[in-house]
TrEMBL record:
One of its GO terms (molecular function) is kinase activity. InterPro entries: ATP-NAD_kinase_N, Diacylglycerol_kinase_cat_dom, NAD/diacylglycerol_kinase_sf. Coiled coil: none annotated. It comes from Pseudidiomarina salinarum. Residues 64-134 form the DAGKc domain. Pfam families: DAGK_cat. Gene3D superfamilies: 2.60.200.40, Probable inorganic polyphosphate/atp-NAD kinase, domain 1 (3.40.50.10330). Signal peptide: none annotated. This is DAGKc domain-containing protein.
Length: 288
């Protein structure tokens, strides 16, 4: 690892990401303090992107991730449990990771002093997640939130997809078995937020060594809509029938339904998810 060498990785599908990457390259080279090893554009192949980043791992002291939570998730697979720091430039739809850390704006790294801070992330099997692991509703929303809706509605696309889910046919929902009942949603979070700013875990902290688990049992549409309103207000505890818990690890899902990590499908459950304290070193504004 070379401490003053930087790899810039950006989401090629996002408007303005390529331009922002070139602006950062020019800024860093002008400062004459850092050496930009490479500027990498994302491809449709996640494994190809991981290979590109890993090939530069020994040359990089910092990865700059320009995009949304999916972009940061890919970088985290390479940077976790190393001395490499990660700088997040939030240009995505949800940006829950940046929101959780208080990072705002595309040019903040150019205008503020930074500090490297170790934070907790999660792991499912051998894959890391930066915000959450979920099954049921969060996996079902993949089909209800197509790319065109994200482009058109931006951050609101998450709420629109949830509304489509609530009014849609109940028999098309994933039914996650737990004990003697059925859950429509199970999620383990390390972030305060999921789904573009929904505060499912308002007490969460990246410095605590635990995950927060939430399950939504199957209820009527009206009951689930009221529960969503409490969650949106950051008060999930006001809904008595929501199941909530905190622990270092949980078993998530069942044999028949997909598990998703930060919005990407990993595979069928059940799956153990675990908190990894201090696993990722991120650069934060010194003012934070």
């Amino acid at each position: 690892m070379v401490s003053n060498s930087i790899v810039i990785y950006f989401n090629s599908l996002l408007k303005g990401a390529s331009k922002t990457a070139e602006q950062y390259r020019a800024y860093l080279e002008k400062e004459n303090i850092h050496r930009v090893v490479a500027v990498l554009a994302s491809t449709p192949d996640r494994e190809k992107d991981l290979t590109m980043l890993r090939q530069l791992q020994d040359q990089a002291g910092e990865y700059i991730a320009i995009g949304g939570d999916g972009t940061v998730n890919i970088v985290a697979q390479v940077a976790a449990f190393t001395e490499i720091t990660v700088t997040v430039i939030p240009l995505g739809t949800g940006n829950d990771f940046a929101r959780d850390l208080g990072i705002k704006g595309a040019r903040w790294r150019m205008s503020q002093d930074i500090k490297a801070t170790p934070i907790a992330i999660g792991r499912a099997e051998n894959i890391f997640f930066i915000n959450h692991a979920g099954t049921g509703l969060s996996a079902d929303l993949k089909a209800l939130q197509p790319r065109w809706l994200k482009r058109f509605a931006g951050n609101l696309s998450y709420l629109l997809a949830i509304l489509r889910y609530l009014v849609g046919p109940i028999d098309r929902r994933s039914a996650i078995r737990r004990d003697s009942g059925i859950d429509d949603f199970q999620v383990a979070t390390i972030s305060k937020y999921i789904g573009g700013g929904i505060p499912v875990n308002p007490e969460g902290s990246r410095q605590h060594c635990e995950l927060h688990w939430l399950a939504v049992p199957r209820r009527s549409r009206w009951q689930q809509t009221k529960a969503l309103m409490w969650v949106m207000r950051g008060q999930p505890q006001r809904c008595s029938w929501l199941a909530r818990d905190c622990a270092v690890s949980f078993s998530l899902g069942d044999n028949d339904h997909d598990i998703e990590l930060d919005g990407d499908i990993l595979g069928k459950g059940p799956m153990w998810v675990t908190c990894c304290p201090g696993a990722l070193r991120v650069n934060l504004p010194l003012s934070n």
